[in-house]
Specification:
Oligomer: single chain
CATH architecture of the largest domain: 3-Layer(aba) Sandwich
CATH class of the largest domain: Alpha Beta
CATH topology of the largest domain: Rossmann fold
Structural class: alpha/beta
Number of helices: 9
Largest sheet: 4 strands, antiparallel
Order of helices and strands: HEHEHEHEHEHHHHEEEEEEEE
C-alpha cells in the first residue's frame, strides 16, 4: 500500500472524495517482520500529508474487531499471494454489508463475484507470474500496488461519493446488498460445520471402522504391506518401451507403454499414471489430468508392462509425464506413503 506515497497522497487528500484508512492489529512478540510493518504504518500515519487520513488504532481486541467489521465501509485485505490461510474477518465484514477489496486469495478467491450486475466488491488480481516465471518480489509489489491505487481512485471512491438527493450513493447501497446476499449464504457456520462433517469427520469415522473390523485385522495387514513397500521402493523404476511421437493429428490416438521394475512387489501394489497437461501451467491453471495405465502382463527381466491408449481431447501443444506410486485400497489418501517415481 505504501509503494507510491505521492499517488497515495493524491487519493487520500482529494478535496471532493477524501479517503481514510484505519489500521488495527497486533504482531506476535517473535514476529519481527510484523512489528516492522506496524512501525512503518505508524511512521506514515505521522507524516504531515497523511495526518487524519491514515489512522493506527491501538489496543486491538475482540471488542474493537467487532466494531471494525460492522462499522467500516471497505474491508481492505492485501496479503502476499498465495499465503492467505482464509480471511474470516472479511467474511464477517461482508455479512455486515461492508464491501471487500482484497487480493484474490483465501476465501475471496471464491467469494468475489465479478460482473456489473453481480459484483459484490473489488478484487486485486495477484501477479501469479511472480511465483511461476521468476518475477522478483519488488515487481510483484509494484504491479499489485498499482492495481490497488487504480481501484481506490477509479472505482471505490467515485462510487462511494456518487450520492443522490437522499444523501447516499444508490450504487454503493446496491453493491452492499449484493455483498450481504452473496456472502451470507455461502460463508457461514452451517456450511463450515457441514463440510467438516462430510469431508473429514465422516470419512475418518468410516476409515476407523474399516481398520477396526475383525479385531483390527485389516490394520495389521496394511501395516505389513507398508513395511514390504518401504523395503522394495528404492529399487522401483520405470522404462519407456513405446516409440515417442512428437506430433499427431487432432482426433488421432497415441499408445503409451512402460515397463516397471517392481523388485518384490506385484502389479496390484502400484498405480501407474500418465499426467496430461498444457505447457507452462501455473497456480491459476487447471491441474494436470491423470490417466491410469493398465497392467498387461510380465515383460522380460522381471519387469511388468503397463499401457494406455489415449486420444487427446484438445489440440495444440500438450505435455505429459509418467509416474508410479504405491496403491492399496485401505490407504486413507492415494499419496499417503509419500513415495513416487517419475519418468
Amino acid at each position: 500500500m505504501f509503494q507510491n506515497l505521492a499517488w497515495l497522497k493524491q487519493i487520500v487528500s482529494d478535496p471532493e472524495r477524501p479517503v481514510v484508512f484505519i489500521f488495527a492489529g497486533k504482531a506476535h512478540p517473535a514476529d519481527e517482520p510484523g512489528q516492522a510493518m506496524i512501525r512503518r504504518i505508524a511512521e506514515v500515519a505521522n507524516m504531515p500529508e497523511f495526518m487524519g487520513h491514515i489512522l493506527l488504532v491501538e489496543g486491538y481486541d475482540l471488542r474493537l474487531a467487532r466494531r471494525l467489521v460492522s462499522g467500516v465501509d471497505v474491508w481492505l485485505n492485501n496479503p502476499v499471494y498465495p499465503l492467505e490461510a482464509s480471511g474470516t474477518s472479511g467474511m464477517k465484514a461482508g455479512i455486515n454489508g461492508v464491501l471487500n477489496l482484497s487480493v484474490l486469495d483465501g476465501w475471496w478467491a471464491e467469494g468475489y463475484k465479478p460482473g456489473k450486475e453481480n459484483e459484490n466488491g473489488w478484487a486485486i488480481k495477484p501477479t501469479s507470474s511472480a511465483y511461476d516465471h521468476g518475477v522478483d518480489e519488488s515487481r510483484r509489489d509494484y504491479e499489485e500496488a498499482r492495481t490497488l491505487y487504480e481501484l481506490l481512485q477509479d472505482k471505490v471512491a467515485p462510487l462511494y461519493y456518487d450520492r443522490g438527493p437522499m444523501g447516499y450513493s444508490p450504487g454503493w447501497v446496491g453493491m452492499s446488498k449484493r455483498s450481504i446476499a452473496s456472502i451470507t449464504q455461502e460463508f457461514n457456520s452451517a456450511r463450515m460445520v457441514g463440510e467438516y462433517v462430510s469431508k473429514y469427520y465422516q470419512p475418518a469415522a468410516k476409515q476407523w471402522h474399516r481398520y477396526s473390523e475383525t479385531g483390527f485385522t485389516a490394520a495389521r495387514q496394511l501395516a505389513e504391506w507398508k513395511t514390504r513397500v518401504r523395503t522394495a521402493w528404492p529399487r522401483v523404476s520405470l522404462r519407456r518401451i513405446d516409440d515417442t511421437q512428437r506430433r499427431i493429428d487432432f482426433g488421432s490416438g497415441v499408445r503409451f507403454g512402460v515397463a516397471v521394475r517392481l523388485d518384490g512387489l506385484v502389479p496390484s501394489d502400484v498405480t501407474v499414471e500418465l499426467l496430461f497437461s498444457r505447457p507452462n501451467t501455473n497456480s491459476q491453471s487447471r491441474p494436470p489430468r491423470p490417466y491410469r495405465m493398465e497392467y498387461q502382463g510380465p515383460e522380460q527381466d522381471g519387469e511388468s508392462l503397463f499401457t494406455l491408449e489415449l486420444t487427446p481431447e484438445v489440440c495444440g501443444k500438450i505435455e505429459y509425464r509418467l509416474r508410479v506410486y504405491p496403491h492399496h485400497e485401505m490407504l486413507t489418501h492415494p499419496f499417503e506413503m509419500g513415495m513416487m517415481v517419475w519418468l
